[in-house]
Structure formats: structure tokens, C-alpha cells
TrEMBL record:
This is Methylmalonyl-CoA epimerase. InterPro entries: Glyas_Bleomycin-R_OHBP_Dase. It comes from the Bacteria. It comes from Oceanithermus profundus.
Length: 32
């Protein structure tokens, strides 16, 4: 994933990071 590129491309990097975090936690939960 290019989180750095996404953060720079979006006007609200914090909001995007929060979405990626939510997706990450969901993926981790599904894996278990």
C-alpha cells in the first residue's frame, strides 16, 4: 500500500489514515 502517496494526494490525510486503520483492523479480524 502507498499510504504516503495517498496522504499527500488527499486534502485530509488524517481522515484517510483513519479509514485505512479501520480497514486494517477489519482485515486482521477476518484473518483470525
Amino acid at each position: 500500500m502507498d499510504l504516503h502517496h495517498v496522504g499527500i494526494a488527499t486534502p485530509e490525510p488524517e481522515a484517510m489514515l483513519e479509514r485505512y486503520r479501520a480497514l486494517g483492523y477489519t482485515l486482521e479480524a477476518e484473518e483470525e
